[in-house]
Amino acid sequence: MKAASLIATSALNMLVAVAAGAFGAHTLKTVLDADMLTVWQTAVHYQMVHGLALLALGILMQQWNDALLRKSAYAMLSGIVVFSGSLYALALTGVRLLGAITPLGGLAFLLGWALLAWCAYRQRR
């Protein structure tokens, strides 16, 4: 993925996260119970944080030519889809089994951050 594509992906993720946050605050608060609304808000929070991380990775890609940045971006994007996506689905459907795949998204987030740390360590030289 090229830097410009990653920045666009970041912007689209942030757009979706803001829309999901507003939807949760204004529409779902009358539909979901407090526990499921908290699940929804967690999904929004992690999507926003990692959407911003994708933006930072896109900017770094313009300075550092390192394949680890692309791998980090793919891991974080996968984390958004799996972690936040499964929590959105859980909140909307109440199907608790969906929560079982959420940790896989968390692992993808951890991998993304670890790859970024490794990339930064390699840039020191």
UniProtKB/TrEMBL annotation:
InterPro entries in the record: DUF423
Membrane spanning residue stretches: 43-61, 73-91, 97-121
Record's bilayer topology term: Multi-pass membrane protein
Main location, first listed in the record: membrane
Any one annotated GO CC term: plasma membrane
Signal peptide start-end: 1-19
Keyword check for Membrane: yes
Keywords: Membrane, Signal, Transmembrane, Transmembrane helix
Annotated compartments: Membrane
Pfam families for this protein: DUF423 (PF04241)
Family: Belongs to the UPF0382 family.
Record's protein name: DUF423 domain-containing protein
Natural source organism: Undibacterium oligocarboniphilum
